[in-house]
Amino acid sequence: MKITRLHSVIAALGVLLPALLGAQQRVDILIRGGTVVDGSGAPRRRADVGVTGDRIAFIGDATASRITAARTIDATGLIVAPGFIDPHTHTQADLSSPERHANLAYLMQGVTTVITNNDGGGSIEIGRTLDGWRKGGIGTNAAVYIGQGSVRGAVLGMSASAPTPAQIDSMRAIVARGMDQGAIGMSTGLYYAPGSYASTDEVIELAKVAAAKGGLYDSHLRDESSYTIGLVGAVNEAIRIGREAHLPIHISHIKALGTDVWGQSDSVIGIVKKARASGVDVTADQYPYTASGTSLGASLLPRWAEAGGRDSLRARAKDPAIRARLVADMEANLKRRNGAHSLLISSTRDTSLLGKRLDEIAQRRNTTPVEAALAIVTAGADPGVASFNMNESDIEKFMKQDFVVTGSDGSDGHPRKYGTFPKLFHEYVEAKHVLTLERAVQRSSAETADILGLKDRGRIGKGAFADVVVFDESTFADRSTYEQPTLLAVGVRYLLVNGTPTIEDGRFVNAFAGRVLTRR
Ligand SMILES: [Zn+2]
Fold first, then answer.
1. Which of 160, 191, 308, 445 is deepest in the core (most CB within 10 A)?
2. Does residue 23 surpass a pLDDT of 90?
3. Is 120's pLDDT higher than 50?
4. DSSP string spanning 445-466?
5. How far apart are CA 340 and CA 470, in angstroms?
6. What value does the mean pLDDT of the chain take?
7. How far is CA 491 from CA 108, 206, 235, 502, in A?
8. How far apart are CA 498 and CA 486, in angstroms?
9. What is the whole-number distance in angstroms between the Cα of residue 118 and the centre of ligand 1?
10. CB 302 within 8 Å of CB 193
């Protein structure tokens, strides 16, 4: 009895004494006076956030808790949120470049973590890529997939043949090595050659290797339109891969591409919900633009015409009988893409083409759009295009789903690389009220971290990594356009990457605090 009482007195003193004596918790950085949207989806609340080292050490009322700080950031009137996580980018080259490794296009959007090697692409030399980033420094955190298209290309080149058992083994070994070297899963782009030459069974064999090593499956669907198996068929294929290979499925840039499939968002949402209810882990990401970004060849050429590579394509285009079939297929594909005015050349060294739409180019050359496109893709490099093919109703329906998160699919020549996250907040939260601020933050941070298996990221929570964005809700906006796709976003006042200030007063301060993230 006595001892118990003594214990309580000591315990009480333990709480009271430090307060009476003015004991303080000291943090490195105190973000003071802001409105915290913590990523969980919970309502915003007024709170101060303390950071020590690379972690969040305090959340609450700093004055009442007698917090002192080496440095204070005034966040009065600003939103304090977890740094955004982008599950789909094309930043491998940027992060590896001595000039572009800051990843500024993303930092200015409040993005602190990017994933790359999506769409089945990127280098298969995962270890070398990640080591290069560790040595050279990177502005954002980054993680990679091992890309199935690249794996198939390394073993079978541009061949459309089925692999031999030995070739399957070789592909499995490359996937295993990539996972062991730090990939978070396997990505596919079954729409693109040479990944497209793989059967579903072939993909399942490789996905099983990623599954055994704790990875997920990231899918640019085989068909987002009506090219081959159709949008619904392609969603079903992705779900089957998840079910049979036993791994989570993440559908990249979910959309209904082209008038043939407009309105099918309802069917796709229904299929995904049913699969989720049956125990398959299916999620998706989305960018808030009506144009997709791809290449002129990828949008119009049938995949059979690309088998064997560019020389084979040129030979086919020269053979009159094959050319007739090629042109007919391209005409059908152009219709799927909503016609020649819907294709805007967005990235090319040829300044006579840049910024022009395909109908205009054809008119100038006094030929048909398909003939003009064929001449361009057989003459040299395949230019990037912005392809206007989505409708707003499908975009908003997908956007409201609880399994859909934000992802830019950022590529050169498309404004989404510089504008996806602020555009979501500016247009779909502030202007159209399609999403609440809390939901927009959640689907751009915590939910994405959970999907990707990124531990202690994506939340404003004690002990979490201090990836923090401080932005002005009223001015946070994209500036990039189809005409000027590389204009940086505005409205992010401060950005911390692993506790290090990277943007201050809206300016990049030459900090390279990003880390390489691996699944394990
Ligand atoms: Zn893609």
1. 445
2. no
3. yes
4. THHHHHHHT-TT-SS--TTSB-
5. 42
6. 95
7. 8, 43, 37, 14
8. 26
9. 7
10. no
Instruction: Answer whether 470's CB lies under 8 Å from 78's CB.
Output: yes
Compute the distance from residue 344 Cα to the ligand 1 centre, in Å.
18
pLDDT digits 0-9 by tens, 391-408: 999 999 999 999 999 999
In single-letter form, the type of residue at position 196 comes to: S
Q: Which of 347-351, 375-379, 404-408, 447-451 has the lowest mean pLDDT?
A: 347-351
- The pLDDT tens digits of the residues spanning 81-103 come to 999 999 999 999 999 999 999 99
Region 34-54 average pLDDT: 98
Question: Which amino acid, 187?
Answer: S
Q: How far is the CA of 253 from the centre of ligand 1 (A)?
A: 7
Q: How many CB atoms lie within 10 A of CB 412?
A: 15
Residues within 5 Å of ion ligand 1 by Cβ? Answer: 119, 220, 252
Angle between helices 230-245 and 200-212 (to 10 degrees): 40
Interval 309-336: pLDDT, tens: 999 999 999 999 999 999 999 999 999 9
Q: How far apart are the first and last CA of the chain?
A: 49
> How far is residue 414's CA from residue 348's CA, in Å, rounded to a whole number?
12
Amino acid, res. 406: T
Q: What is the largest CA-CA distance in the chain?
A: 102
CA distance 139 to 398: 31
The residue whose two tokens read 């001015």 is 475
User: Can you name the residues that pair with 413 across neighbouring β-strands?
Assistant: none
